[in-house]
Amino acid sequence: MYQPALFDVDHLASIVNVASVPQRSPFRYPGGKTWLVPRIRRWLARRARAGEFIEPFAGGAIISLTVAFERLAEHVTMIELDEDVAAVWQTIMSDDGAERLASEILAFDMTRDAVVDALARTPGSVPERAFQTVLKNRVCHGGIMAAGSGLLKEGENGRGLRSRWYPETLARRIRAIAAIRDRITFIHDDGLEALAQRASDPQAAFFIDPPYTVPGKGKRAGSRLYTHANLDHGRLFFLADSLAGDFLMTYDAADEVVAMAEQHSFDYRRIPMKSTHHAQMRELLISRNLDWVTQVSEAYPADNDA
Ligand SMILES: C[S@@+](CC[C@H](N)C(=O)[O-])C[C@H]1O[C@@H](n2cnc3c(N)ncnc32)[C@H](O)[C@@H]1O
Known about the structure:
With 306 residues, this protein is of the alpha/beta class. It folds into 2 domains: 1-81 and 189-306, Rossmann fold (3-Layer(aba) Sandwich); 96-181, no CATH class. The chain is 35% helix and 15% strand. S-adenosylmethionine (SAM) binds at residues 29, 31-33, 56-57, 59-63, 79-82, 85, 190-192, 209-211, 226, 228, 231.
C-alpha cells in the first residue's frame, strides 16, 4: 500500500502547466515527460554539472533534448529500442538527415489517401522509416504508434488528419535539434544493457522512464502504448541500485512499484500531473534522495518562465 500523507506532496508541488515548457521534440509522445522538465532542471542544478546525461528509454526524449539545449550536462546519450522511433533520432543525428526529413515533411501533401499510401509502404531505408514514423505519430490517436492504433477521424476542430500536422513547427524543431547534434549521441539498443554498461560512471546522471502501465488501468485495456511494452522491472531496479551515478526514475503510481522502491530503500514521491485529457493523475518519482522535490514550487514559482 502507499505511504499516507507524510509522503504526499500535493500541498507543495503545483501541477506543471505543460504549455509553459518549450516543446522541442518532433514527437507527441504517449507518456511524454514535458511536465517534468522544471523538476529535471532543479534535480540537475543541485549537483556538479553531470558529465553524461543518459536516458535509456528515450521515446520522444523531451528531457534529453532539454538537457542538451540548456547545457545541463556535458553530453547527452539517449537510447531507444523501438526501430521506428530510433529511425527518427538516427536520421536527425546523421549528416543531412535532418534537412532531408524537414524538407519531406514540408513538401508532404496531407490527404487521407496520401497518408494511407505513405504508411502502407515498406520503408527501404532509415530516413524513409523516419518520415513514416513522424507521419504516423501525427495522424494516429494519442500519437500511439504501436500495432492496433487507429488514424484520427475528426481530430481537433474537425480538422481530421491535419489536426496534429504542423509541418513548419516540425521542420523547425528537427533543424534545431540537428544544430546541436554534437551534444547528443543516440543509440538504438536495449536500455537495460545500456544501463549495465554505464553503471560504474560516477559523473553520469540517469533519467529512467520505462514503459509501464498500472495493471488493469491501461487507458485502453488490452492495447499497448508502445511496441516494446514489456520490461523486467525487477532487473531495472537492481540495475538502478548498482549505478555509481545519480538517477531519477518515473513510474505510474502503483503499489507494486512502491514495493520495489522500498525493497531497494529508494526514496519516492507521488507527483500530481495533468494528462493530455486534463485528468489529474499521479506519477511516482524514485531516486536515492528526493528531499529537493518538496522545494520545487518555491524554486520555480511560475513554472512557466522557460
Ligand atoms: C514511457 S516511454 C518514454 C517517454 C519519454 N520519457 C518521453 O518523454 O517521450 C518508454 C519508452 O521506452 C521504450 N522501450 C521499451 N522497452 C525498451 C528497452 N528494453 N530499451 C529501450 N527502450 C525501450 C519504448 O519504446 C518507449 O519509447
